[in-house]
């Protein structure tokens, strides 16, 4: 069974319910569809040392990658925002590490506004693994 956009968005709302956000109270959920059809859920996890906070999107990616899953087909992100919730720069960089530029990203909110974009649109001209020359440790750019 393939997971469609609406199912992935519903899953992201379920993920959001687990958000640990005592400081910002801004709960975010993400649902990441892996190539094999499995969905990895992520929520944001805050910390009294604010900078240790992990976003919902990266939680989902790190759960999958830590289980050996590194290929993905789509991700949905949801928050209680006026417009569709946009991922931060750190999450865009992580997306660019593991996803093709044309991978769909569904940005949504609790009201149901949905904006479909792609990883490449969110992070054009990304620094990627191909930019590093591992023989010399220097950038190829
Ligand atoms: O796309 C986003 C944007 C923000 N946050 C989290 C980080 C922090 O916990 C809270 C406020 O920035 O929202 C996410 O999880 N994903
Ligand atoms: Zn983020």
UniProtKB/TrEMBL annotation:
Zn(2+) binds at residues 55, 88, 91. Residues 3-130 form the CMP/dCMP-type deaminase domain. The active site is at 57 (proton donor). Substrate binds at residues 44-50. It catalyses: 2'-deoxycytidine + H2O + H(+) = 2'-deoxyuridine + NH4(+); cytidine + H2O + H(+) = uridine + NH4(+). GO terms for molecular function: cytidine deaminase activity; zinc ion binding. This is Cytidine deaminase. It comes from the Bacteria. Its EC number is 3.5.4.5. Pfam families: dCMP_cyt_deam_1 (PF00383). Keywords: Hydrolase, Metal-binding, Zinc. It comes from Ureibacillus massiliensis 4400831 = CIP 108448 = CCUG 49529. GO terms for cellular component: cytosol. This enzyme scavenges exogenous and endogenous cytidine and 2'-deoxycytidine for UMP synthesis. One of its GO terms (biological process) is pyrimidine-containing compound metabolic process. InterPro entries: CMP_dCMP_dom, Cyt/Deoxycyt_deaminase, Cyt_deam_tetra, Cytidine_deaminase-like. NCBIfam families: cyt_deam_tetra, PRK05578.1. Belongs to the cytidine and deoxycytidylate deaminase family. Its cofactor is Zn(2+).
């Amino acid at each position: 069974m393939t997971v469609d956009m609406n199912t992935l968005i519903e899953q992201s709302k379920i993920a959001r319910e687990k958000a640990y956000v005592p400081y910002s109270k801004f709960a975010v959920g993400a649902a990441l569809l892996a190539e094999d059809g499995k969905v990895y859920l992520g929520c944001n996890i805050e910390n009294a040392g604010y900078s240790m906070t992990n976003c919902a999107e990266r939680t989902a990616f790190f759960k999958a990658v830590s289980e050996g899953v590194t290929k993905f087909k789509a991700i949905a992100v949801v928050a209680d925002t006026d417009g569709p919730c946009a991922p931060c720069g750190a999450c865009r960089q992580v997306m660019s590490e593991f996803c093709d530029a044309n991978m769909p990203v569904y940005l949504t909110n609790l009201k149901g506004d949905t904006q479909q974009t792609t990883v490449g649109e969110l992070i054009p001209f990304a620094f990627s693994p191909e930019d590093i020359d591992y023989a010399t440790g220097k950038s190829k750019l």
